[in-house]
Design goal:
The chain has about 240 residues and is mainly α. It has 11 helices and no strands.
């Protein structure tokens, strides 16, 4: 269904969530009749990276081939993930925060206090998760992509320190859906749940791209540079 020769304007017709993928890769709307390959070439973006991420969003449990990984750009993946962080912190969490606080104004003080404490804890954890990637992981990826050697870090350390924020988000969703008293405004509860489901879905794709796309690409690059974890330990 996806190809470099298809019109870029047709990509979101497959799945509307691909509008976000397009923007997070730094592409601007106003495609006209240009193809994916033409739009990406003008923006300096690897078209195979766009196609790969699009398939991950459009097809559940999509597993890319080694050829797809080898043709995609590790730096474009980092750009996508970085811009995703900007979206989460600048828009998604802001919308969720506003919706939760509006909902809590219709609930009793006890439930409001418990939920806000849990939400604030989740928010702090996910922001720390993003900060670690921005300050440590992404600079390292850019370093090895440029062919430079780092003897103080390798991608295995990322795997060891990669916190799973998905569970807490699911817990937050369960609390809102199952345990708030009936006095809370149900329309506002639905608003919060809509934001939570959307964030959960997007973060799931985000995590998959980190773990199953970026990490294997980084490992392959480390191997090319002789920087595998085993090699470093033997050195």
């Amino acid at each position: 269904m996806f190809s470099a020769g298809m019109k870029m304007a047709e990509v979101p017709d497959v799945d509307h969530r691909l509008l976000g993928v397009i923007r997070r890769l730094g592409l601007k709307f106003g495609f006209g009749e240009k193809t994916v390959e033409e739009v990406c070439a003008e923006a300096g973006v690897n078209p195979h990276t766009l196609l790969l991420i699009s398939k991950i969003y459009a097809y559940d449990n999509y597993v890319p081939s080694k050829e797809e990984l080898s043709r995609s750009s590790m730096l474009d993946i980092v750009t996508y993930l970085h811009n995703s962080h900007d979206f989460y912190t600048g828009i998604a969490l802001g919308n969720l925060d506003t919706a939760i606080r509006a909902m809590m104004e219709t609930c009793d003080e006890k439930h409001s206090r418990i939920l806000m404490r849990f939400y604030d804890g989740y928010r702090d954890e996910i922001l720390k998760h993003f900060e670690y990637e921005e300050q440590t992981v992404f600079p390292y990826i850019r370093t090895i992509a440029d062919g430079q050697v780092s003897d103080s870090y390798d991608i295995d350390q990322y795997e060891e320190n990669h916190s799973n924020v998905d569970e807490k988000l699911n817990d937050l969703k369960s609390i809102v859906m199952k345990y708030l008293p009936p006095e809370c405004d149900n329309n506002l509860i639905q608003d919060v749940l809509t934001y939570l489901y959307s964030l959960e879905d997007d973060l799931g794709k985000h995590t998959y791209i980190e773990d199953d796309i970026l990490v294997p690409m980084a490992m392959a690059r480390e191997k090319e540079l002789g920087l595998s974890a085993a090699g470093m330990k033997d050195a």
